[in-house]
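hey so u asked for the seq, here:
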Amino acid sequence: MNTREIAREYRKSQWTQRLITQKASGQSIREWCERNGVKRNQFFYWQRRLRETAVERIAAQKNTPSMIPGGWALCTTEAEPPKSKVKGITIEIGNSRVLAEPGFEPELLEKVCRVLSSIY
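ran it, structure tokens below
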């Protein structure tokens, strides 16, 4: 690893910590940036950059396509689900799993997925 790569990784780790600190503070991004002397456009730049890095790492680990459209996650299917499973679809977002059984309300499922996506 050369000096540039070390500096790049150091900045990433610093900004990762800043993003975690902002989230834990309970303050809005605007408030947190003002109180910490950080420009909002700089905050959003690093937020986007770190998210892109995270998506690339996840994709590499799961051997998936490197481009996942915003708001979507990669789903896998079982070759033949066990007969004991309830029929429907299972959606996994972060550490959460949602089972949508036949007759589910699409609007409610959309809202639940949106909330879970904002958490993870």
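Residues 3-25 form the longest helix (23 residues). DSSP finds four helices and two strands in the chain.
lmk if thats what u needed
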